[in-house]
Input
Amino acid sequence: KIHLSHGRLDDAERFAHDAITKLAGYAEAHLLLARIYLMKGEPSKAEPSLKALVLAFPDSPAVQTEVGLLETSKRNRPAARAAFERALAKNPTYVEALAGLNQLDLEEKRTDAVKARMTDVLRAKPHDGGILLLASRAYGSMGNLTLAENMLQKAIAADPNNLVAYGMLGRLYAGQQRLNEATVQFEKLAEKQPKSVSAHTIVGMLLDMQNRTSEAREKYERA
Output
């Protein structure tokens, strides 16, 4: 999981195979391996594991979501939608299944469906960081940057250590040329990740864009 979260897919694949070798019936390892293959763009390798998991755990939201992602990669939109909906029938606030349905609806210009879905899940879990980030991405994709920003601010208020939310908010501000506000958010991120090269570099770039040269130099040197 650590390797997967850092995008080191080959290492993640190796450890997943090791886990399966040591305990063949370890369902989570099979599920992770299927996810790795999907991320590597190799759906044909993911399919056998997912078929076995569906037989063993037909009611698992995690399994059904992976099936939805598999079908999405195969451009089988009806099957993907059905799988995501099966996942949500078991867990209506399962973030990855919600994200999958949002993607399908946004591609089909069904923005009303996305708005209604986000309204329902935010009502159910108004302070859930994962739901708030999902809502921000959805509203941002629909061009409502005010609501996207509001969701990120709520995510940070609910969890001041939500590093993803800081990064998203910084990028949102930068995209709107609100450079000073973006700098503040990325500085907070750099404070929480003092060894992060990227965080200090981004702050340096933002300062440089504001002609704050000496401050930018300090951040670059720290990076």
User: Anything to note?
Assistant: The two ends are 27 Å apart (CA to CA).
